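Model it.
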Amino acid sequence: MKIIIINGPNLNLLGVREKSIYGSSSFIAYYEKMITRFPDYEFEYFQSNVEGEIINFLHKVGFAADGIVLNAGAYTHTSIAIRDAIAAITTPVVEVHISNILTREHFRHDSIIGPVCKGSIMGFGMDSYRLGVESLTVK
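Modeled.
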């Protein structure tokens, strides 16, 4: 099973930014644990702070991978273009968030991408990614 993990803006700073919200671990450290936890899966990781790069990457992998776990960061709440890219591809996408966006600032409560995703997982810290991967095996 080939799983693509995509992180959006500012998630390259995990482990150093707002530790009270996002924790003190880097994503790369967590990603390495994921690879060990799921030895039968093939993983690919992509991170960008640029909306168009995320869209281009979704187009590139969105017809061949078995699943995509996407933390679009702030683009979750603003990017109709990423929403349209998810709707256009055939690979199922699971939206994940480290924090519970419903308990944060009001402008974070709405997800533009959620309605075109297989599902949404939020609020379980970095384990939101693991849960996202596991959810891709559920029909």
